Amino acid sequence: MKRNIVIAAVTAAALIGGGTATALATTGDDTGSARQTADTRLSGDDVRDDQDGADDRDDDAARVSSSDVTAPEAIASALKHTSGTAVSAELDDEDDSAKVVWKVDVLSGDNTWHSVSVDPSSGKVLGSHADDEDDTAQVRAALKGSSVTAEEAAKAAADKGVVTSVDLDEDGKNKSWEAETRTSGGAEQDWKIDLKTGKVTADRSDAQDDDAADDQD
């Protein structure tokens, strides 16, 4: 519609003076070309973002489908190998390689951190190494008085979908376990699990952060 209006304006101007008509026509063409170029560039960026998001979802789906061992089972296996308190478990690539493993972080009684790798197919411990962490006191304080373990939190969240990670949120006022689940349809959701009751509630913090970021943009 706008293009027809520009052409009509140019035609009318041509009846008045050829030079003016030429200038108007050129201006209209340049504006249209610039607009088309910008629209094309933005569309290309959107397509690439969509493709990147789809690739990430495909990678996550592949990791989930490759694991026969659940998060609670991986945690139990890690604790059998390395005694202590499980603080997190995540199904992830091993050292950025194609191999997927469960990575379980265990805080031992002498405050040493251990990263235990568990095979997602057999539940066998593949290896363990000590980690340097600087939030030991914060973790101990958050877990003080807690009656729900990481394993129990993962079991509670399993009612919502396949648990791909569980982690202790020791920051802020409301301490809790956090879990990420994936449904059979591929939808991801974050959950909070109460440290004392084991009650599972939807984690709205990520959605609020995304809304805040959109407002800033």
Describe the structure.
The chain has two domains: 63 residues, no CATH class; 145 residues, Nuclear Transport Factor 2, Chain: A (Roll). The protein is built from six helices and eight strands. The two termini are 30 Å apart. 47% of the residues lie in helices and 25% in strands. It is of the alpha+beta class and 217 residues long. The N terminus is likely disordered. Strand 3 and strand 4 form a beta hairpin.
What's the SSE blueprint?
Elements: H1 2-16, H2 18-65, H3 71-81, E1 85-93, E2 100-107, E3 113-118, E4 125-131, H4 136-143, H5 150-157, E5 162-169, E6 176-182, E7 188-194, E8 200-202, H6 205-216
Antiparallel strand pairs: 1-2, 1-5, 2-3, 3-4, 5-6, 6-7, 7-8
What is the name of the CATH topology of the largest domain?
Answer: Nuclear Transport Factor 2, Chain: A
Q: What is the overall pLDDT average?
A: 77
Tell me the distance between the termini: 30 Å
The total domain count is 2
| Number of beta-strand segments | 8
Radius of gyration: 28 Å
Strand content: 25-35%
Q: Which regions are unreliable across 5 or more consecutive residues at pLDDT < 50? A: 1-28, 52-58, 209-214
Secondary-structure content class: alpha+beta
Strand order of the largest sheet: 4-3-2-1-5-6-7-8
Helix % is: 40-55%
Tally of separate helices? 6
What would CATH call the architecture of the largest domain?
Roll
CA-based shape: globular
The secondary-structure element order is: HHHEEEEHHEEEEH
